[in-house]
Amino acid sequence: MAKIDYSGRMARVYGAGRRLSPEVMKTWVDAVALHLGARRGPILDLGSGTGRFSEALAARFSVPVLALEPAEGMRRQARQDVVRREVLMVGGRAEAMPVRDDSFVGVWASQVVHHVDDLAACTEELRRVVRTGGPVMLRGSFEPTRSFLPWGPYFPEAIRIAAELFPSLENIVAAFAAAGFDLLTHEVIWQTTADSMSEYAERVRLRADSTLELLSDEEFATGMARLDAVAAAEQSSFPIREAVELVVFV
Questions:
Q1: Rounded to whole angstroms, how far apart are CA atoms 221 and 2?
Q2: Helix, strand or coil for residue 192?
Q3: CA-to-CA distance for 188 and 115, rounded, in angstroms?
Q4: For residue 247, what are the contacts with CB-CB under 8 A and spacing of at least 6?
Q5: What is the reported pLDDT for 146?
Q6: Is the separation of the CB atoms in 163 and 220 below 8 Å?
Q7: Alpha carbons 225 and 108: distance in angstroms, whole number
Q8: Those residues with Cβ within 8 angstroms of residue 250's Cβ, 6 or more apart along the chain or in another chain
């Protein structure tokens, strides 16, 4: 995937642009709890960004959470946003994690896999650092739901970019299988991303999504004009719902 600069503007807008309500965050952390079961111990938040899930996981389970993030700008923002002392922020890449073998009872990775340069090396590292039977939980928009992205109708060029650059779900499953993982479940969770089209348009305007960031400025402006027109015509508020997938390996 083309490289995105996460150390400047993206780090500053990510929190606002990708914000999840407490109710939506609870839905995702409930899913983590279901797959962790009775396991308690350190959790890895792989590609933790500004630490939104790191903070939520530490609060829910009262265990150490290692927030592993390669971009210094994102880690710098996380140091301002994350308050729980159980969260340890570390720089590092998914292909070479600076941690000991069998360090974690589970791994959470939200919207991360498409940023990994070497998926095979990543899955081998995950096999090394997660304890036997511990779940690796991938949250993201893969082929089954990509066409349902709320911004998709307004930015068709971005959908094409995602189809070309992101690894397919089939390839992801194959890479995990080669590292000794079994696919436990693949499910779709619907979340409310914004309470109105107007609110959604303001969030999209921040361009806090890597796929939108890969558009030319002209393509992004054209898509925003389409979205703004729909938001301006909104007669009454209605929630913007989004289908997001959860793929779990053990």
A1: 20
A2: strand
A3: 21
A4: 137, 138, 140, 142, 169, 172, 173, 183, 185, 186
A5: 80
A6: no
A7: 35
A8: 133, 134, 135, 136, 181, 182, 184
User: CA–CA distance from 144 to each of 118, 230, 242 (Å)?
Assistant: 23, 25, 12
The DSSP annotation for 29-91 comes to HHHHHHHHTT--S-EEEET-TTSHHHHHHHHHH-S-EEEE-S-HHHHHHHHHH---TTEEEE-
- Cα–Cα nearest to 17, from 208, 151, 192: 208
Q: What is the phi/psi pair of residue 139, to 5°? A: -105, 130
Q: Alpha-carbon distance 23 to 36, whole Å?
A: 20
Average pLDDT over residues 193-205: 97
Q: What is the CATH number of domain 9-147+167-195+241-249?
A: 3.40.50.150
At residue 10, φ and ψ (nearest 5 deg) are -60, -40
19-59 residue pLDDT tens? 999 999 999 999 999 999 999 999 999 999 999 999 999 99
Contacts of 28 (CB under 8 A, 6+ apart): 20, 53, 56, 110, 139, 189, 191
* Whole-angstrom distance, CA of residue 190 vs CA of residue 200: 16
> Which residue type is seen at 217?
D
Token duo for residue 133: 């039977």
Pair 120, 178: CB distance under 8 Å? yes
